[in-house]
């Protein structure tokens, strides 16, 4: 998000028509705030791009980015699919009333209990990731006298130009059936021979926080080539080709994300080169849907000034509510929410309160003059913030608030100290 695009009134940052400073007073800090109108807008941009290019499609929200009941209810309202990667995410989605037939179940080591749950809840499609999973699911389907739709997750040998831990499509990956070595052919035969599995398509995901279109175009081309190979060898043509997600967002001025129109337009051009029928195309955006819609509000506390060095400005949260800077060296930007009309006068390290020297949320941030009690708003924190939050140092996880059309609503309560000990037993 570009700071110049932020909206303010009377010197206060406005989020979804609501004063962020008042949100901090009402709900306390740290506080996750989501502008739901931005979430809806991004979904509709993806849909519009597909429709402009006359492609059959599904948008499947990658809910690992942010998984709570309220966001699943928004996805239901927007009539999209979702993908889950654990029994916990599946349970949350079902608890929110999300229709099971619009759920895809991902993961590289789904347990027996998770697969059984997926079968019993009639999940729309199970993404098969390895041979153990094929055997386990086959066993469950026979036991339950059930059938299910499946897709094969493939590793097509395409690397994305992102952080090494965000690359998932190359051959050396823990995910999926390798195409080059023949694993994908073996998996295809195994699934087609199982009368309880309906193979609906093939899937690949090349990484996360990707800015260029080249990787996606290469993936579309490769997946069509694989589909033609499967047609020749197994007389199978996929109903669906799932191209995964990974569309980058702008965390700071160095990031230059592609638009939905750009990448879907170029994918469509590649797909339409085939003489075959183009399958229904699925994508799995997560970060790009919720990331820019999220803000984290903190209260400024202590400060450490060191001669000839950058000062440390501490806030009342940190790596427990946003691990990405420590884990990925992810870069963010922030503003002082109650001083939007004041010029920047200093550059500081934004430090968290956790007992780790690496708990630095932002390494170098320009800000107006600050004092304890000011409200710092960290931008673009909607993805992989709450979903990766933890109780390190026995700090409670923050509350989550949705704002839309000038209204605010608490959707996740702040944890209490009592919550922290609720599962502890005496010795």
Describe the 3D structure:
The protein has 427 residues and is of the alpha/beta class. It folds into two domains: 3-35 and 291-415, Lyase, Ornithine Decarboxylase, Chain A, domain 1; 36-286, TIM Barrel. The chain is built from twelve helices and 21 strands. Strands 4, 14, 15, 16, 17, 18, 19, 20 and 21 form a nine-stranded mixed beta sheet that branches. It has an eight-stranded parallel beta barrel with strand order 5-6-7-8-9-11-12-13, surrounded by seven helices. Strands 1-2-3 form a three-stranded antiparallel beta sheet. Helix 2 runs parallel beside helix 9, helix 5 (112-120) packs across helix 6 and helix 8 (214-234) packs parallel to helix 9. The radius of gyration is 23 Å and the shape is globular. It starts with 6 loop residues before the first strand and ends in a 7-residue tail after the last helix. Homodimer. Keywords: Amino-acid biosynthesis, Decarboxylase, Lyase, Lysine biosynthesis, Pyridoxal phosphate. Residues 37-290 form the Orn/DAP/Arg decarboxylase 2 N-terminal domain. InterPro entries: Ala_racemase/Decarboxylase_C, DAP_deCOOHase_LysA, De-COase2_CS, De-COase2_N, Orn/DAP/Arg_de-COase, PLP-binding_barrel. This is Diaminopimelate decarboxylase.
